[in-house]
Amino acid sequence: MRVKKKTGSMKGLMTVIPKRLERKLIAALMIGALIPSGASAATEDADVEVFDFDATTEVEAEVNEDSLRYLLLVDTFETAERIPTRRLSTPAEVVVVTADEIDANHYQSVSEALSHVNGMVLGFINGSDRVLTLVDGRRSFMNPPMKAIDRIEIVRGGGSALYGSDAVGGVINIITKKGDHNETHVDVNTGSWHRHRYEITTQGNDGRLGWFLDAGIGKSRPYNSKGGDNQTDDYDDKYVSLRLDHRFDDRNSLTVDVMHNSDHFNKYRSDRSYEYFPSNYTPKYELDNQVAVTYKFKEESSTPGFLRYFNNYSSFDSRLYGKGNSRLQGVDYQNGWEMGQHRLIVGVEWHQSSDEHERWDWSQRKINNQAYYIQDTITLGDKWTLVPGTRLDHNGQYGSQWSPKIAANYSPDDQTKIYASWGRVYQAPNARQLYTDMTRWMTISGGSIPYRYESWKGRKDLEPESGHVETIGIEHDFSDKVNASLSLFNANVGSYLDLNDYGSVYNTSEYPYYARFLDLNYVNSGHDKQRGANLVYRQKLDDHWSYNLGYAYTYRDRPLGSEEYLNHWRMPKNSYSASIRYQNGPWRATLHGMAGSGSNGANYMEDSFALWDFNVSCDVSDWATIYAKAINFTNQNRSYYGRSQNAPGRLFQFGVDCYF
Questions:
Q1: From residue 421, how far is each of 84, 401, 415, 424 by CA, in Å?
Q2: Which end of the chain offers a freer environment for a tag, N or C, measured as fewer CB atoms within 10 Å?
């Protein structure tokens, strides 16, 4: 398909490419582009005139959707600026895990999909654990099932001006599918550790109403690790995800999202040495229910708006924290306008979190937060984009704080972008850090003799975190078959909120066993600095083969009050990734390698590690696909949460996906 970029104001344009035609036209490219009124549907050989708000002269460019798909690139996304923006005019590094990639690899969870993104270790982005995860742009306690996900957008770098200061390392936005055609899937798989999953997905659309329903059951015993310890929980979960979309007209729609998950775990746990006193032991559970209602308006424009109410509820009985429940509810509003070279968006948020816990004597703790943000995307000629913005958070306990941010993007040609950004970060303490009051004994092998005592306490005099984040980077398309990107980051957060060990005592006189008495307190532990680099190279070799190579360097400077209890924040200084993909007719296969080095073995268990994941699938008919996976099939030992827990060992999985 040949696309002509044409200058002109988007003001007054009243029609856009219908979103249900995205896959048929250009595979999710140009989501935000506007088509003049009366334009007919495009075909593969047709010329389409697209108004590009970044261009000032008429140019022609070949859009090769197959190459973008093979290179795992998407041309348009919405998370970086909360409005649709094009890849090479957005001043940030954005990685997108598409539905095609999810289907090809048969990912079973969001964490598995993110583990194949270069530099993503244990959910860290740019070396920071302060990462905000959203579902369709809203805060969430849980992730939707993988077959309900249209794409996962990962934005590296601070996003505090738009999303708040828990987006220090970046933002992960999980965007769900909406029903656009009639189809039903049944997926059944089984594998190592008695792991089974049964899932049914159905979707449909009658013109105005679209629905997407996903329901499933998953079971697993505790995994085995190369190191021999069996510390990770088994699980027995049941989940339902439903999305309803009603379109009033081309400009307005209403979306209702409902998610439910019930998980019971620890039923088969073999490690019984860390049990509460007395020695009775029961399976633990977590129950999550979420609902969101979103009214969307001005959907055809370059600055769409929405009004949303959401309510997230979680009830749990965890091995570490005992019984409790949490709720997060809120109202979000955003609107925008295009005025010449400016695309201005404003937003208002009201969020209320409430927590109660048996170790707080079930007293309920509520925290209210109101936020107001404004951002302007300014197009300066045909090469520069400037994005200033700021956010005002008013916390019910800590008052008001500003979080400004500014970013700039320079495109010297149609294949290159160079960008830089700076932002301030601010985060107030949460209820757990303020109000935790937990004391427990542990016994030896489920017996009656205590050998360990722990006391965890929050502090009401904690100060908010504050600091700044900087990012610079470059991305270049050498051709429609080769792409490379490099980003550098730096973050400095002061008054870092941490859990430190005070007054730990070893006592062997009162009890005949080696006893340790821990006094743990949430504190402001000083600074937390991260800096590093992320480099990715992508190439399509031919119609069947493509590959990615990645390297990430991360250095973290953070004073620790207790090395033993904070080691799970550790990560390798050097991370390497390599993916080789093959597709030919009904066959698809991926070999993905991950490696890490430069770690302190005392804090991360191993100085280095290397492992490989492999999957292959075949469309055996027009209604069925069979697949097989091997995760860590060389059975390498590495840390999962620092030295305290080994990562899973070798896992085999087999499944069949039927659709009709």
A1: 19, 20, 20, 11
A2: C
pLDDT digits (tens, 9 = 90+) for 195-237: 999 999 999 999 899 999 999 999 998 877 776 555 566 889 9
Distance between CA atoms of 538 and 482, rounded to whole angstroms? 6
Q: Which residues, in sequence order, are CB contacts of 161 under 8 Å at separation 6+?
A: 373, 375, 389, 390, 391, 403, 404, 405, 423
Residue 660: exposure state from Cβ atoms within 10 A (0-12, 13-18, ≥19): exposed
Q: Are 560 and 536 in contact (CB under 8 A)?
A: no
pLDDT for 630 beyond 90: yes
Q: Are strands 305-318 and 322-339 parallel, antiparallel or unpaired?
A: antiparallel
Tokens at residue 636, please? 């390498």
Q: Assess whether pLDDT exceeds 70 at residue 386.
A: yes
pLDDT digits (tens, 9 = 90+) for 126-160: 767 788 899 999 999 899 999 999 999 999 887 77
Distance CA 308, CA 646 (A): 41
360 backbone dihedrals φ, ψ, rounded to 5° = -105, 20
DSSP secondary-structure letter at 360?
G
240-259 average pLDDT score: 97
Sheet bearing 47-51, strands edge to edge: 47-51, 2-6, 59-62
- Select from 255, 274, 339, 270 the least CA-distant residue to 302: 339
- Tally Cβ neighbours within 10 Å of residue 182: 11
Q: Which of 165-169, 211-215, 630-634 has the highest mean pLDDT?
A: 211-215
Q: Before 586, cis peptide (omega within 30)?
A: no
Residue 244 to residue 436: CA distance in whole angstroms: 39
For residue 231, what pLDDT is reported? 54
Residue 137 per-residue DSSP state: T
Q: Which of 71, 68, 91 is nearest to 81 (CA)?
A: 91
The answer to which of 38-42, 241-245, 442-446 has the lowest mean pLDDT is 38-42
Structure token digits, residue 633: 């099939």
Quote the CA–CA distance of 289 and 142 in Å, as a whole number.
Answer: 9
